[in-house]
Amino acid sequence: MAAFLFWGSREACSKFEKEFEAFWEQQVRSASGQRLEMLQRDLTGTRKLLETVILPVFGTFDGLFLEYEMMSLSGVRLYGDIFHPKLRTVFEEEHFVTHAEKITRDRFAFERARARSVATLGLIYFPYSRDELEKKAEFCQRNLYELVGRVGHVSGMGLSRLPVYEREVLRMALFHRDCFQIADVKEWLQLQHEASRSVLRALEAKAFIEPWGGGAKRCHAFRITEKAVHLLNGK
After folding, report:
1. Do 183 and 225 touch, CB atoms closer than 8 A?
2. pLDDT in 10s for each residue of the chain, 235 residues
3. Beta strands in 35-123, from DSSP E residues, in sequence order
4. Dihedral, CA atoms, 64, 45, 121, 30, nearest 10 degrees?
5. 62 in Cβ contact with 19 (< 8 Å)
């Protein structure tokens, strides 16, 4: 089974809507008080962040929290759009109009204090602007892949346990979301043909990639497996 979903198609959009609805309902069932109120507001930005970045990278809603509740340094309750416990990261969608263009001085100061409170809790604050999500989706995804690659070992995610060349191939393959060839690996790693093929053999032996296309005796391309996606998600 391929690990990739082509999020731009109508079928994928429909699939996202159904999966998001089920995820949202599960979150609502476990919420109360102010968090429940937050979940019932307009979540257009959060949906955009999930559809454009979070789902294409992680491939699942599993383990995520919507409107994650935190306590600020001043004792005020704060809520993060999306929280990933294994990465200890709070993801935010920020619209220019509400977070910059029409913001008051007091609100600006509050936003800075909010970011400090998140840091004090030992969490990573990872915001995206609405414009980035709409115009630079692949750039936003690449930022998240970089985060996973750099902090995954801290959160216990298994990707960092792989040799650096194998890890880089998986990260790049995930970013491209499609089959890839040895020529791509040579470019990603800046290695010669045989060295690149050795990396591919190792990944195939670990069932992190699988042959794709070609005949029985000759493989023309590879693609990443579900096992590799689960590795990224720390499962």
Report:
1. no
2. 333 333 445 555 678 899 999 999 999 999 999 999 999 999 999 999 999 999 888 878 988 999 999 887 778 888 999 999 888 899 999 874 454 556 777 767 867 778 888 888 889 999 999 999 999 888 888 888 888 777 754 444 566 667 888 888 887 887 665 689 999 999 989 889 988 998 999 899 888 899 887 554 455 789 888 888 777 665 5
3. 65-71, 77-84, 89-94
4. -40
5. no
pTM tops 0.90:
no
Q: Give residue 19's identity as a one-letter amino acid code.
A: E
* 204 contacts 188 by C-beta, under 8 angstroms: no
| Furthest-apart CA atoms within the chain: distance in Å | 67
Contact by Cβ (8 Å): 208, 172: no
The beta-strand segments (E) located in the chain are 65-71, 77-84, 89-94, 124-129, 209-212, 221-224
Q: Which of 122, 53, 57, 58 is nearest to 91 (CA)?
A: 53
